[in-house]
Amino acid sequence: MATPEAPSTPSNFIRQIIDKDLDSGKHSNIITRFPPEPNGYLHVGHAKSICLNFGIAQSFQGVCNLRFDDTNPEKENPEYIQSIRNDVEWLGFQWPGEPKFASNYFDQLHGYALELIKSGKAYVCELTPEQAREYRGNLKEPGKESPYRNRSVEENLDLFERMKNGEFEEGKMVLRAKIDMASPNMNMRDPIIYRIRFAEHHQTGDKWCVYPMYDFTHPISDALEGITHSLCTLEFEDHRPLYDWLLDNISIDCHPQQIEFARLQLNYTVTSKRKLKQLVDEGHVTAWNDPRMPTISGMRRRGYTPTAIRKFCDSIGVAKANSTVDVAMLEAAIRDDLNDNAPRAMCVLNPLKITIQNYPEGQVEQLSAPLHPQKEMGERTLPFTREIFIDKEDFREEANKKFKRLVLGKEVRLRNAYVIRADEVIKDENGEVVEIICTYDADTLGKNPEDGRKVKGVIHWVSATESLPAEVRLYDRLFLDENPDGNKEKSFLELINPDALTVVKTARVEPSVAEGQPEQGYQFEREGYFCIDSEDSKPDQLVLNKTIGLRDTWAKIGD
């Protein structure tokens, strides 16, 4: 996969810090990391972090590691690991060598835990979870020291070894760092750094029954990898003193600088992994990669492009304070990219039969049309026949002058084809129009009528006999509320948009679409941007996903 060009982003506070570090000689090369926990699929918020970490490294000719912080085996899954790898690569980024795992460092982490015990800076605690909460205090009151805090080094070493050997049940004991129970920062009140878990680990099997906590693992993993700048979202700002304390109190040479930035928050979107998993587990969506989901794999399947996502992440910048970004900005980036790069095609969602009575029966005329109106993408072939389909919405028996489509007794141009006139309608027993009898002007292919008649309307169409049937899935935003996470009256599940998915099984598409690859995007003229579904579509049974409309219809709703 080709590495994307380094984004031409304006300077931000992180780049200024790195520039200063390079100028001062503090660092001669830059190493960052993207460290997801493999407990779910990545979402749009992770896309910002991926673009930032990999983009920073790329801009400064450094490297960015992909590291899985896999310290919680009960919630982690090899499926998630593979999906994360796929997402990072799809976005256009690469890491040196094989991905790294925090579990690769379990032996070293255990050694540093022993080092803290030997220096009197860690102890084995037997408080129950309920007691630990009581002893911890709150934001207004300091915590109380555990009665086990002053155990001897020898006793702590013995108990920790027995914890490691599986002699105690889960929850019976934990290893805590000995810092300051009166600290105003709750994270510094003797945090747990190891706990007992009898769980099979996806990388280490059953070797361990004690697992390090994330706050212990993360800074040490960074240091072991020689990370220069550890870029985290703002919720880790209060964890930074613990990050620094741990590295200052073990015998490790490297001390990365943790820098926090504002996470990506989009309106009309939920990005909590727990809530996304709930959507999947309870069947509100079909899977993590459901095109309604804000996961990277869901956006990919829906037809979003990596270029557009990278440009969007670049455009919103890097800030020090959280704010909510309008999802319309992301949608606009998708539209801009697809408008420039998606080939054109025609699709009729709700077919209405047209019979051109003066066109030769059985004739198939191969018309030529550009794949893109402004770019040199080549041509596609449109079979034209006596019977064609137009969209039902493009015909009225009577209409005012504002209706620029087909009206009984009047003319309209077929896109890339001829001018036709509606002469007669055929209705079923319910009075519904089921067929229109038309005539065509054979001298209007690629030119206006010779007698000066002005035909203002243009509609799309497909051949009734040569077009292909397709199932088209029309997607919209998953939530109706601008802040589904913050609504005080309803849960986020009650705010799901019932029209987020509409399945159309009657659609017909021009034959060229069958030549497309999975995830290939198209602009279906006058309908919007669509792509070939990567899972369910087959050459003889096309399934197409609506990526986005030609314009922002939600803006009108807001107005």
TrEMBL record:
Signal peptide: none annotated. The keyword Nucleotide-binding applies. ATP binds at residues 37-39, 233, 263-264. Residues 30-339 form the Glutamyl/glutaminyl-tRNA synthetase class Ib catalytic domain. Pfam families: tRNA-synt_1c (PF00749), tRNA-synt_1c_C (PF03950), tRNA-synt_1c_C2 (PF20974). It is an enzyme of class 6 (ligase). Residues 342-441 form the Glutamyl/glutaminyl-tRNA synthetase class Ib anti-codon binding domain. The gene is glnS. GO terms for molecular function: ligase activity. It is found in: Cytoplasm. A motif ('KMSKS' region) lies at residues 270-274. Its main location: cytoplasm. Residues 458-533 form the tRNA synthetases class I (E and Q) anti-codon binding domain. It catalyses: tRNA(Gln) + L-glutamine + ATP = L-glutaminyl-tRNA(Gln) + AMP + diphosphate. InterPro entries: aa-tRNA-synth_I_CS, Gln-tRNA-synth, Gln/Glu-tRNA_Ligase, Gln_tRNA_ligase_bac, Glu/Gln-tRNA-synth, Glu/Gln-tRNA-synth_Ib_cat-dom, Glu/Gln-tRNA-synth_Ib_codon-bd, Rbsml_bL25/Gln-tRNA_synth_N. Its EC number is 6.1.1.18. This is Glutamine--tRNA ligase.
